[in-house]
Amino acid sequence: MARHMQHLKALRDIAFSCGVGEHPDLPSMARELSRMVFQNRQALNDDLADLRTHNKGFERWLLALRNKPDITVLVNAWPANHATPIHDHAGLWGLELALHGALEVESWECDPQGRSLRAVGRDWLGPGDASWFDADDRYAHRCRNLSRHDTALTLHVYGGDLAQYFTYERTGETGQWLTRPQRSAIAGHLHA
Ligand SMILES: [Fe+2]
Questions:
Q1: 23-53: pLDDT as tens digits
Q2: How far is Cα of residue 88 from the mean position of the Cα atoms in its chain?
Q3: InterPro entries, from UniProt (predicted)?
Q4: In this structure, which CATH number among 1.10.10.10, 1.10.1670.10, 2.60.120.10, 3.40.50.150 belongs to the domain 6-189?
């Protein structure tokens, strides 16, 4: 993955410059990232060709990490049909943007103890489209690659290191929500 990724570097720089303050202006960050993706779609696809054909399952690749203010930038690879469980983001703010392919994002709201969840919306992201959320313990979502054949790639910006989070699953018999702690695994580093 040691390609020269000047367009990924530009995306990282936008994330860093917009990701300031406790509550960054995420719509502005989305607009700037989106513009960059639209203007350089083919070049980005070329930069990320290895990830699109990697076929190693769902993977999270670290693009950049900054301290004070804390920001993590990742590129995720989604195999065809892959869906995440409903999961939170440890109360961090976050932005997720489609780089290649299309993703469905189901948004959920959980009560502070995570005992019940409620679906609050559904979005479809094509290349350059983004979904974002402010720092909030109650926000959770479930994402799915809408393609039956192709890997999707997404850019993720979080206001911190999303090392641990929770997944939520409804049990069949009682309909209660099961909460499970998870650890994020990194497949490797992208060198922008
Ligand atoms: Fe997520």
A1: 899 999 999 999 999 999 989 988 899 888 8
A2: 11
A3: CDO_1, RmlC-like_jellyroll, RmlC_Cupin_sf
A4: 2.60.120.10
